[in-house]
Amino acid sequence: MLRLWPPPTPDPPTLTDDELAEVYAYPEPLDRPYLRMNFVASADGAASADGVSKGLSSAPDRRVFGLLRRLAEVILVGAGTVRTENYRGARKPSVVTGEPPRIAVVTATAQLDPAAPLFTDTEVPPLILTAGGAPEANRRRLADAGAEVVVLDGDRVAPARVLDALAERGLRRVLCEGGPHLFGSLLGADAADELCLTVAPTLAGGAIDRIVVGADHQLRALRLVSVLSEDHVLLLRYLRDR
Asked: 216 pLDDT exceeds 90?
């Protein structure tokens, strides 16, 4: 993997694993949850192929995907993405905690299958962040399956409440893996600090599903801080320019 930006001197260096970790290191110190978003998209803007993001992935993308997980303390994801991508617990330990990062699922209804791999194939119990209006029976099933179920105030799961719940558990290095509706909610609240975007060298065509879905159309500036490339794949890192 080559570093293209910031401009290398004299030639683009091939990054070692340690150097790649430096590129994606979280800022220090952190006194609040820092929200990093990670997505893959085709060159024409599609967020999935055959209905799943894995259809756009590649070896360079998987390398950075795994690294971002190891740098995080918690992986934040929407319930729809958990079901579509058939999520399970993270495998490799976080470099911060020494154990796999928790999977934190945002769901207004707590409508998840307790027999799914998220609950049955994990070393760390998942964290379920749900709304006060979620059926009690749903919440109880997930708790019985070993999850920590956190009921947030209100009929919807507000981004500020989600980040507060993570902060209360000492989880500040947050990696959000989607999906588009969760990203739209977080974007609407201007809660995202960083976007890591892999651009796959492919054209999806047809109807394009974007990495973000939501009613908020306000433009928010980003600052490009790194560009990496391997096998025609671009790996972009942006910081929210506040």
From this structure: no
